[in-house]
Amino acid sequence: MAQFRWQLIPPVTPPAIFVEQVRRHCGQSSGQFAAQLLWQRGIQSADRLGGFLSPDCYTPTNPWEFGQEMKWAVQRLGQAMAQKEKVTIWGDFDADGITSTAVLWEGLGQFFPQDRQLTYTIPNRLRESHGLNRPGLERLATQGTKLIVTCDTGSTNLDEIVYAQQLGMDVIVTDHHTLPDDRPEVVAIINPRYFADDHPLFNLSGVAVAFKLVEALYDQYPTVPQQPLEDLLDLVAIGLIADLVTLQGDCRYLAQRGIAQLRTQKDPATATRPGIHALLNLCNRNGDRPTDIGFGIGPRINAISRIKGDASFGVELLTSRDTKVCNQLAAEAETLNSRRKGLQKSVITEIDQRLQNIDLSTTGVVVLTDPQWPTGVLGLAASHVAQTCGRPAILLNTQDGEIAKGSARSVANIDLYALLHSQRHLILGFGGHPFAAGLSLPLDKLPLFIEAVNQQFWQSYGAQISLDPILAVDLQVTVADLGQDLFREFNLLEPYGMGNPAPKLLLENVQVEITDFRNIKDRTGNKVSYLKTSFCVKDYPPKTDGDGQAIQCSGIWWGHHPDELPQNEPLDLVVELDFNTYDRQYEVRLIDFRLHQPQGIAPSQTSANLIDRRSPHAPDQALSPQGHVLRTCPSSWSELRRAYQQAIAAQQPLVLDYHFLPQCPSSLVAELEAQWHGRETAQLSPLSLQKQWDFSHGLASQILVLIQEYGPALNSGSAWPKALVRQIETLIAEEQFQKQYFSQVSLTPELLATVPDKP
After folding, report:
1. Could you read off the pLDDT of 139-176 as tens digits, one per residue?
2. Helices 323-355 and 378-389, interaxial angle, to 10°?
3. pTM of structure
4. What string of DSSP letters covers 53-73?
5. Which of 88, 370, 509, 658 has the highest local Cβ count within 10 Å?
6. Element (H, E) at 573
7. Contact indicator for 242, 302 with CB cutoff of 8 Å
8. Which stretch of DSSP H or E encloses residue 639?
9. How many CB atoms lie within 10 A of CB 73?
10. pLDDT tens string 56-92
11. By the 8 A CB rule, do 643 and 628 touch?
12. CA 665, 667, 673 angle in degrees (round to 5)?
């Protein structure tokens, strides 16, 4: 797997007048950090600052900006009202699609009697795909539907739209996904992708587009609606933030207004949506921050279709006013989300093992398949792969035997939709946008698809791809900076999203102390195989404040075991600052870490860039502790070159300070077996195996997977099966052969810069 290459955004010093303008919004804080972040992100004038920080200073875009398409849509809906035609909302099964359906259900419900003239339908995630489908259209035609209004879907369903017309139904599309080459034959298509990418409506998600249609209806027929339009904004904020769209322009404005509306759902005295009130209570959130959606409400709504398939009760959960029903539905959503966490963790653990064998120097798009992977979590797992590898990822379920179906996610500025579109002749169906998509293709076309999509990737993006994905770091701070004042400064930039990410902070020369570790349980007490490591971070060595109290901050690391995090050693951390509503404390969320490396000698253009302590002829400089020290013998060219690139990026010499000591695989396996039988006092993990026997992380993970596969057969305390012993011996012998090669080869900077990734 790739390792992140940290890149600290160059610090800036905004003009004093700008800092003062920001400080006025910061209470007791100086506003310096917030001013620097805002300036770095292009907010550099008083006019833009006001509109960015406060929705009261922003002028939202009129819904009629969609032009003739919006006029046609409103006209056709007016015709349906006059002729009392049956209208059906066709939604999608993710959080954006469910909230889109809910917005149209309530919004159009002001003009059409619900359940009689207005209905809604959402495809089953586990049995159907995104978008319109023929069986569903036939069912609606039989039920008397004359007009279909899609939300968060439909832009690319050209054949299905024609089929709907043949069945006597008109179609209005409201969507935000990438447009087809030709306009579909619909009554109207309201899609912000028709705008220029700097237009304030361009980044609208599906729920925001649906809201704009309702807003236009309210404007056209102002005396009809009984419910205030603003009552829909909490639903809009949930869909916007859960769908991870760029929160700029009207997107940011709607999210800000929506969060203000969402905040009222926490208090029973002001709550108008008992379903949202119950969800906030279950996830212990207040509804006043975007993270309450991103880590609370959003995952629970998404879990409904990921696990259950049928997302229709998600709309009922959001729109019903029956408290008893909503409490039952919210409890079920909570249970489904716990199951989702367990499935997601299981799939990602298996995927991480496979990623050890992927050579990123020759792999542009990571494509992985499995017949057992649950399709409902493949999008989440694909996001993990994309972020881990710095590559687009496509994960497919092949259980059908003839058709592979799954999800894809992208990173950086790589247009995933364009990559898939280039191979549309091999794909049965796909849809999405540049960063996320769903697809299906014939299984027998899979090898050709993998080869072709990788070839297209290298042609389009090869020149800009690094072996190591970049982790952009916004600011360098100290442990003493972490707390209420800094949190309040960062609060000014919320809501975060694409184009305005949560600030990533660099803490240098600190240490951590593990305070808790647990396998998360669901509300029924069952473990869901989702790890949470808690720690406190202090300076190295620790410092105290004026009252003699230790300066420290709490932290959490999701999905990781404590053994993976070195304690009481000098570290550099990349973190995000947050507030834990459950424990009522400020804390950091760990993103990445590395051993602290003091600033060393800047690399010159000579062989001094490589210091080899293995050689008796190494220069005196080799005795210096400074430099990027490689203490573990590499087992591949990629591993060695990665260390060399990191040293160059850090402006330090690469110091080779490892010694190869061949060991008998049989003796290692015997020690491993003995430790396994005593595992009550010695927990096994990849990190513990690395520390004890100098295994690489990949080898350690492979060994643990083998042990786990044999499972109960190893619990009796008897000798391990010979087959298991032979497999582990083979794995160790292969890695030792590689290390022996690299312990003897003569290395130079010129060689490292030019050798292939495999010897």
Report:
1. 999 999 999 999 999 998 999 999 999 999 999 999 99
2. 40
3. 0.74
4. H-GGG--PPPGGGGTHHHHHH
5. 88
6. strand 571-580
7. yes
8. helix 637-649
9. 23
10. 989 999 999 999 999 999 999 999 999 999 999 999 9
11. yes
12. 100
Q: Which residue type is seen at 526? A: N
Q: How many residues does the chain have?
A: 759
Tokens at 742, concatenated: 């690299």
Strands (E), 443-569: 470-473, 475-476, 505-521, 527-539, 552-558
| Phi, psi of 437, deg, nearest 5 | -160, 160
Give dist(CA 298, CA 95) in Å, integer. 6
Instruction: Find how far residue 461's CA is from the centre of its chain.
Output: 22
Tokens of 473: 């770091």
CB 654 within 8 A of CB 647: yes
Candidate from 223-232, 274-283, 468-477 with smallest mean pLDDT: 468-477
The Cα 35–Cα 16 span in angstroms is 10
Helix (H, G, I), strand (E, B) or coil at 135: helix
Return the amino acid letter for 235: L
319-328, 534-543, 682-691: least confidently modelled range: 682-691
330 pLDDT band (50/70/90 cuts)? Answer: very high
DSSP secondary structure letters along 250-319: HHHHHHHHHHHHHHTTTSTTT-S-HHHHHHHHHTT--SSSHHHIIIIIHHHHHHIIIIIS--HHHHHHHH
Residues 755, 597, 559: CA angle, nearest 5 degrees: 85
